[in-house]
Each structure stands twice: as C-alpha cells, then as structure tokens.
C-alpha cells in the first residue's frame, strides 16, 4: 500500500506526521472521503470543490491547485492498483508550535490514503439498519458550519458512541432546534408515498455528495424530491427511511428509537434507489 505524504509515496509504516502537527494537536484541517468504483473516482470534482470550500472557510492554504491535487489523488489510486476502494484525502494546518496560532504552521501537510473499505456488513444492506436518535446535537451553522468537513469530528464520534451504547450501528443527531440533521457520517432521507425528503443545508448537515447524487437519481426516476426540515415524528411515521454517504453508500433503516419503519424491511423505493446507485456509480465512469 502506497500513501502519498507531502510530495512522496511512502509505505504505511513510513507514513508519519509530527506530533506538532496542528491537525493532531487541535483538529485543525480538512478532509474528504471519496470512493473508487471499477477504477472510476466517483464525483471527484464535487469532492474537490467541497474540500477547497472547506479549506477556504477555515483559511487553510492547500499547497496545490485543485487540478494538481486531483491528479495526485488519481495517481495514488493508480499506484495502489485498486479497482474498488475508499480514498481519504487529508490536509492539516501543518507543523507549528504548541500555541493555537496557525501563522506558526509553515505549510500544510497533505496525505492521501487509498484502501479497500467495508463499513457495514453486506447483510445489513439486505436487512436494513436499526438506529436511534441521540442527545449530541449538530453544531450550529453560525459557529463552525457543518458544511465544513473539518478534522473536528468529536461530535460525530460521540454520536457513534451513543449509538453503540444503545447497541445499534448508527444514530441520527438533531440540530439545536430539534430538527433531524444527519447521521454521524451520513445524510438521512425519509420517503412518504413517492416523495423523498432530506433536510436542507441550513438545518445543519454536511452537503453530502452521495445525498446530492441520490437526489439527482431519484428525480430522474420520476420521484419528487424535497429539501424540507422534519422532526423525529416524521421519521417514525415515514414509509421508508435510508441513509447515504460515501462510506455507507445507500442503506435502509428499518427501526428508529424502537419504532418499526414501514414493514420493518428495506422499502421498495429505497431498494430502487440502491439499485440505481450501484448501476450509476459504475456508469458515470464510462466516458
Ligand atoms: N455527514 C457527515 C457528517 C459526513 O462525515 C459524511 C461523510 O462524508 C456525510 C454526511 C455524507 O457525505 P458524502 O456523501 O459526501 O460522503
């Protein structure tokens, strides 16, 4: 396995960063998770746009043009000879001193990791997930915007821990007003009739690339898609619920806080979207 680290390809054992890196000391940096399907990097441009927007928002200079970094990622994928994989691109503020001041960090550290990935066991895509809602809230958009995919994932980690304490694999967090925001690392959709609903960006969620792709695919399949705020009640009473994310892809939810969703198994519309998603991630790479 080859890891790109600041201009070099190194082995996993040699992929090391200083303890003075502000990504390590303070979570000061940004990242992307991207997927490779049959040798094609899925929606690369959208991921790169988001990475550069995240960096701009926290005033972090990525020491490469967007085109250069895109090429470096493609090169790392090629070097690892993986047809299906998960890419993690990380840009941290770099090595500084023990103070917070980012001006003491000379240059950003850039890391690209490519490896095979399986997040949920395969069976769960057939049976669907049981999830809960948890006390940890999504951070408010007027503080650090949830649109920034930063290295500060403590909120999301607490959500995942709260899920584990409830003996389930994933959980939903609400925003400070009690509207459903998203999962720990995935966006949420509910289906009522033939309409798909997902929370709008201002509710406080990451603008998921998979979410946007699913909205495109659903519209093309003739579904109505609405970005509207909704509450836990709406989730409990939905016909279908599913999550989307680069790692999770599209996965049905069959129970939320003990309430059985629909028939208690992945719904027909969710399955249709999952099928379309699996087809399109490969098709989009065929030029
Ligand atoms: N929400 C959060 C907090 C995430 O970390 C992710 C994962 O990247 C998502 C949603 C899903 O976004 P995407 O589909 O771009 O992976």
UniProtKB/TrEMBL annotation:
<comment type="similarity">
    <text>Belongs to the class-IV pyridoxal-phosphate-dependent aminotransferase family.</text>
</comment>
<dbReference type="GO" id="GO:0052654">
    <property type="term" value="F:L-leucine-2-oxoglutarate transaminase activity"/>
</dbReference>
<dbReference type="GO" id="GO:0005829">
    <property type="term" value="C:cytosol"/>
</dbReference>
<keyword id="KW-0663">Pyridoxal phosphate</keyword>
<dbReference type="InterPro" id="IPR001544">
    <property type="entry name" value="Aminotrans_IV"/>
</dbReference>
<dbReference type="InterPro" id="IPR043132">
    <property type="entry name" value="BCAT-like_C"/>
</dbReference>
<comment type="function">
    <text>Acts on leucine, isoleucine and valine.</text>
</comment>
<dbReference type="InterPro" id="IPR005785">
    <property type="entry name" value="B_amino_transI"/>
</dbReference>
<dbReference type="InterPro" id="IPR043131">
    <property type="entry name" value="BCAT-like_N"/>
</dbReference>
<keyword id="KW-0028">Amino-acid biosynthesis</keyword>
<comment type="pathway">
    <text>Amino-acid biosynthesis; L-valine biosynthesis; L-valine from pyruvate: step 4/4.</text>
</comment>
<comment type="pathway">
    <text>Amino-acid biosynthesis; L-isoleucine biosynthesis; L-isoleucine from 2-oxobutanoate: step 4/4.</text>
</comment>
<protein>
    <recommendedName>
        <fullName>Branched-chain-amino-acid aminotransferase</fullName>
        <ecNumber>2.6.1.42</ecNumber>
    </recommendedName>
</protein>
<dbReference type="GO" id="GO:0052655">
    <property type="term" value="F:L-valine-2-oxoglutarate transaminase activity"/>
</dbReference>
<dbReference type="Pfam" id="PF01063">
    <property type="entry name" value="Aminotran_4"/>
</dbReference>
<dbReference type="GO" id="GO:0009099">
    <property type="term" value="P:L-valine biosynthetic process"/>
</dbReference>
<dbReference type="GO" id="GO:0052656">
    <property type="term" value="F:L-isoleucine-2-oxoglutarate transaminase activity"/>
</dbReference>
<keyword id="KW-0808">Transferase</keyword>
<dbReference type="InterPro" id="IPR018300">
    <property type="entry name" value="Aminotrans_IV_CS"/>
</dbReference>
<dbReference type="InterPro" id="IPR036038">
    <property type="entry name" value="Aminotransferase-like"/>
</dbReference>
<keyword id="KW-0100">Branched-chain amino acid biosynthesis</keyword>
<dbReference type="InterPro" id="IPR050571">
    <property type="entry name" value="Class-IV_PLP-Dep_Aminotrnsfr"/>
</dbReference>
<dbReference type="GO" id="GO:0009098">
    <property type="term" value="P:L-leucine biosynthetic process"/>
</dbReference>
<dbReference type="GO" id="GO:0009097">
    <property type="term" value="P:isoleucine biosynthetic process"/>
</dbReference>
<keyword id="KW-0032">Aminotransferase</keyword>
């Amino acid at each position: 396995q080859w890891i790109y680290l600041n201009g070099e390809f190194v082995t996993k054992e040699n992929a090391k960063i200083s303890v003075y890196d502000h990504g390590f000391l303070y979570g000061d940096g940004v990242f992307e998770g991207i997927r490779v399907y049959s040798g094609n990097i899925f929606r690369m441009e959208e991921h790169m746009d988001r990475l550069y927007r995240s960096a701009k928002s926290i005033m972090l200079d990525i020491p490469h043009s967007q085109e250069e970094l895109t090429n470096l990622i493609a090169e790392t994928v090629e070097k690892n000879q993986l047809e299906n994989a998960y890419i993690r691109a990380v840009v941290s503020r770099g090595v500084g001193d023990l103070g917070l001041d980012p001006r003491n960090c000379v240059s950003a550290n850039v890391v690209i990791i490519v490896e095979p990935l399986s997040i949920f066991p395969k069976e769960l895509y057939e049976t669907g997930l049981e999830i809960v809602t948890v006390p940890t809230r999504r951070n408010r958009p007027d503080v650090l915007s949830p649109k920034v995919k930063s290295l500060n994932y403590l909120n999301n980690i607490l959500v995942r821990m709260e899920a584990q304490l409830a003996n389930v694999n994933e959980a939903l967090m609400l925003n400070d007003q009690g509207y459903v925001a998203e999962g720990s690392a995935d966006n949420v959709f509910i289906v009522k009739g033939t309409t798909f609903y997902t929370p709008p960006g201002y509710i406080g969620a990451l603008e998921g690339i998979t979410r946007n792709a699913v909205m495109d695919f659903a519209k093309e399949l003739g579904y109505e898609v609405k970005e509207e705020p909704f509450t836990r009640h709406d989730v409990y009473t939905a016909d279908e619920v599913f999550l989307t994310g680069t790692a999770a892809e599209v996965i049905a939810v069959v129970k939320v806080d003990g309430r059985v969703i629909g028939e208690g198994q992945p719904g027909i519309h969710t399955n249709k979207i999952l099928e379309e998603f699996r087809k399109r991630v490969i098709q989009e790479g065929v030029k």
